[in-house]
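Hi support team,

I submitted a single chain yesterday and got back a structure, but I'm not sure I'm reading the token output correctly. Could someone confirm the output below corresponds to the sequence I sent? I've pasted both exactly as they appear in my results page.

Thanks,
R.
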Amino acid sequence: MRQPAKASPTRFLLATALLAAALAALLAPLAGAAPSSRQVAKEAQNASLGRTVLTTNGGRTLYSLSAETKGRFICTGACLSTWHPLIVAAGVTPTGPVKLGTVMRPDGRTQVSFKGRPLYSFSGDGRAGDANGEGIKDVGTWHAAATSKSAPVPETPQPQPQPPYPYPY
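Hi R., thanks for writing in. Yes, this is the structure output for that exact sequence:
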């Protein structure tokens, strides 16, 4: 009777490595199948602007530049030290209180957009709720990303002219 050959440690490690590689190859398509999403924005009522605006998760007001439309980027280079793009990793779908999209920046990063315009935070906002970037003009005008129109201002009655004599004749 012949005795079974002993398995060598090298042969065992090789078989284990091949099995792990085959399993990884089979599971790889499943790992990439589920798109990832991440909440990147919130909504807040801004009293100084009189409307509801988008903010970062930390409460910083988000802005867009009026001249940045249809994939055209104006804020590049030195501009980025003042206006900070809201960036997500490639393949991440940004979520928030409204429908958000993404645009590819000239440097290859993925920037969050709202209504087709890239979103930025402003270095001049010192704390949550500040909107110091509103209305700044350069090659366009910076505006807070409003999710609602400003609240209507109630009409104040205008004083009516009084006749010169208070009593009728």
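A quick pointer for reading it: DSSP finds one helix and twelve strands in the chain. Let us know if anything else looks off.

Best,
Support desk
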